[in-house]
C-alpha cells in the first residue's frame, strides 16, 4: 500500500483533532482567526491547513465532531489522509487506545487503490504512528486487507479457480506454508463430490485449495467460499443479480487476508485454510434442480435451487475440516441475500452455539471497529431444511429466514469440532465511505484476529 507511516525520527507537523465548537488553545490568535475565516468549526471531517510565519505549511486542523457524529461511522481520519498535502504529520488530541488504533488503520487504509486496470493516484501525506499503537501490526492488517480487496475487485475473467489457486500458493510461499490443490474429476468425485457437482459445468476446473502453517499450538481452520463467478447455474440469475458475482469468492478472499495476518504476525497456532474454488456455470453437464447429491459426509442433498451453490461447496470443505476436529473452525462466505435484507451491507451476521466465543467476537468487533452481529442457529427451523426425499434441502421454499436456514445447513457438516462459527458476509462497499472506496471490502477478519488470543488462549 503506498500510504505509510512516517519514520519516528522524522520532523512532522501537528494535525490537531478538534472537537466541534472549539479550537486548540495552544494555537496563536492569528491561526485561530485564519481557521475561523475559512469556516472551520470542528464539524466531523473538516480539514483546515494552517500557514506558518513564513507562509509555508505549519499545522492542520481536523474536525473531530461530536461523539454522536463519530458513532455514526468509522475510520474518520481517512478523510484527513485524503485531503492533506504531502508531508509528515503527527496527531495532537486525546484519544483512547482503541480510537488511536482505529485512526492509525484509517490512515493506512485510505491509501488503498485498485490500480490493476487503470492508474489511480494515492494520497501522499504520511502519519507518525500514534503513541501506544503497534505500527507493525497496523501495517500488517492493512496489507492483508489490501490483499482481500484486490482479490475480490479482480473480475472473474482474471480471477477464476486457477487464478485463485495461484494467489493461494503465492500466499503460502510468502509465509513458508505448505499448500496443495485437489483437482481433477477422479479425485473430486471420490472425495469432494459436491464441489465437483457445482463446478463441473465450467471449463475452468473446480478444485479444493488446502494450506497448512505452524507446527505447535491450538488448531485453527478457516474455510472460505471460493465461487469465482456465480451465474446461478440452470436457475439462472437475472442480470441485475449477476452483476456483482465476481465477489462471490469474497469468503475465500477474506480468509486468505486473515491467514496473512496470522502468519505475518507469527501467532503461536497451527493454521489450516480450505478454499473450494469453483465457477457456477451453465452447460449440458450442469447440475440440475431436483438432483440429489451425496456429500463427502454421506448426507444426501436435494438441489431445489442451483443458485444456492455456495453452501454445497462449503459443506464438503467443512466436512473435510471437521474430520481433523480443530480447536476452532471458522467459515466465511458471501452466502445469502437474506443477511443483507436483515442487516444491510455493513453489518455481517455470525452464527455460533458457543456463548464464550460469541462474546469474544462481539467484544473484539466493537474494539477494532469491525462490526458483527450474532444471529441464532434457531433449532425450530431445522425441519425447513429437511425435504423428505433426501437428508437435506439446499434451498427451502418460502423465502423465510434464509440466512438462518443456510447456517443450519452448514452446521450439519460440523459434528466433531467443539467450536464453530459461520460468517455470512457481503464483501462489498456499495458507496464510498472513509477508508472504504466503493468496491471490495474485508469484513470480520480483524475482529476474529483480535478475538483469537482470548478464544484460543494464545
Tell me what you see in this structure.
Belongs to the peptidase M17 family. Residues 305-312 form the Cytosol aminopeptidase domain. This is Leucyl aminopeptidase. The protein has 458 residues and is α/β, with parallel strands linked by helices. The chain folds into 2 domains: 5-133, Leucine Aminopeptidase, subunit E, domain 1 (3-Layer(aba) Sandwich); 139-455, Zn peptidases (Aminopeptidase, 3-Layer(aba) Sandwich). The protein contains 15 helices and 20 strands. The protein has helices at 29-37, 67-71, 78-83, 97-109, 135-153, 161-174, 185-191, 193-199, 239-242, 250-265, 310-323, 337-343, 355-367, 402-411, 445-455, and strands at 5-6, 13-19, 47-51, 57-65, 88-92, 126-128, 178-183, 207-213, 219-224, 226-230, 270-280, 292-294, 300-302, 328-333, 349-351, 373-375, 392-393, 420-424, 428-429, 439-440. Strands 7, 8, 9, 10, 11, 14, 15, 16 and 18 form a 9-stranded mixed β-sheet that branches. A 6-stranded mixed β-sheet has the order 1-6-5-2-4-3, sandwiched between helices. A 3-stranded mixed β-sheet has the order 12-13-17, covered by helices on one side. α5 (135-153) runs antiparallel to α10, α7 (185-191) crosses α8 and α8 (193-199) packs antiparallel against α11. The longest helix has 19 residues, at 135-153. The radius of gyration is 24 Å and the shape is elongated.
Amino acid at each position: 500500500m503506498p500510504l505509510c507511516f512516517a519514520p519516528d525520527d522524522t520532523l512532522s507537523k501537528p494535525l490537531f483533532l478538534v472537537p466541534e465548537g472549539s479550537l486548540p488553545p495552544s494555537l496563536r490568535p492569528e491561526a485561530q482567526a485564519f481557521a475561523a475565516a475559512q469556516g472551520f468549526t470542528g464539524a466531523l471531517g473538516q480539514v483546515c491547513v494552517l500557514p506558518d510565519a513564513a507562509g509555508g505549511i505549519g499545522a492542520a486542523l481536523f474536525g473531530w465532531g461530536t461523539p454522536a457524529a463519530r458513532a455514526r461511522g468509522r475510520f474518520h481520519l481517512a478523510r484527513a489522509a485524503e485531503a492533506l498535502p504531502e508531508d509528515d504529520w503527527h496527531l495532537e488530541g486525546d484519544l483512547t487506545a482503541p480510537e488511536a488504533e482505529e485512526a492509525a488503520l484509517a490512515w493506512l487504509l485510505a491509501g488503498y487503490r485498485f490500480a490493476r486496470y487503470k492508474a489511480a493516484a494515492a494520497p501522499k501525506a504520511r502519519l507518525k504512528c500514534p503513541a501506544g499503537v503497534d505500527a507493525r501490526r497496523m501495517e500488517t492488517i492493512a496489507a492483508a486487507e489490501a490483499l482481500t480487496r484486490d482479490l475480490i475487485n479482480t473480475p472473474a475473467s482474471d480471477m477464476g479457480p486457477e487464478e485463485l489457486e495461484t494467489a493461494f500458493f503465492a500466499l503460502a510461499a510468502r509465509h513458508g506454508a505448505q499448500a496443495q490443490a485437489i483437482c481433477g474429476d477422479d479425485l473430486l468425485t471420490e472425495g469432494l463430490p459436491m464441489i465437483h457437482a457445482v463446478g463441473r459445468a465450467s471449463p475452468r476446473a473446480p478444485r479444493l485449495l488446502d494450506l497448512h502453517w505452524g507446527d505447535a499450538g491450538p488448531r485453527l481452520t478457516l474455510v472460505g467460499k471460493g465461487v469465482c463467478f456465480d451465474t446461478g447455474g440452470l436457475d439462472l440469475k437475472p442480470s441485475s443479480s449477476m452483476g456483482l458475482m465476481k465477489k462471490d469468492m469474497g469468503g475465500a478472499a477474506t480468509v486468505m487476508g486473515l491467514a496473512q495476518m496470522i502468519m505475518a504476525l507469527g501467532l503461536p497456532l497451527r493454521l489450516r485454510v480450505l478454499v473450494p474454488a469453483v465457477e457456477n456455470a451453465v452447460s449440458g453437464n450442469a447440475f440440475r434442480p431436483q438432483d440429489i447429491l451425496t456429500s463427502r459426509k454421506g448426507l444426501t442433498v436435494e438441489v431445489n435451487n442451483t443458485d444456492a451453490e455456495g453452501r454445497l461447496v462449503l459443506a464438503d470443505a467443512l466436512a473435510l475440516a471437521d474430520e481433523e476436529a480443530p480447536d476452532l473452525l471458522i467459515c466465511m462466505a458471501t452466502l445469502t441475500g437474506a443477511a443483507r435484507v436483515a442487516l444491510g451491507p455493513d453489518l455481517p451476521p455470525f452464527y455460533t452455539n458457543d456463548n464464550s466465543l460469541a462474546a469474544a467476537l462481539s467484544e473484539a468487533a466493537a474494539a477494532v471497529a469491525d462490526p458483527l452481529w450474532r444471529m441464532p442457529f434457531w433449532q425450530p427451523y431445522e425441519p425447513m431444511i429437511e425435504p423428505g426425499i433426501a437428508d437435506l434441502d439446499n434451498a427451502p421454499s418460502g423465502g423465510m429466514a434464509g440466512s438462518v436456514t443456510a447456517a443450519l445447513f452448514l452446521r450439519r457438516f460440523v459434528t466433531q469440532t467443539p467450536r464453530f462459527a459461520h460468517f455470512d458476509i457481503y464483501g462489498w462497499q456499495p458507496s464510498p465511505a472513509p477508508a472504504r472506496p466503493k468496491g471490495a471490502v474485508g469484513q470480520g477478519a480483524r475482529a476474529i484476529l483480535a478475538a483469537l488470543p482470548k478464544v484460543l488462549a494464545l
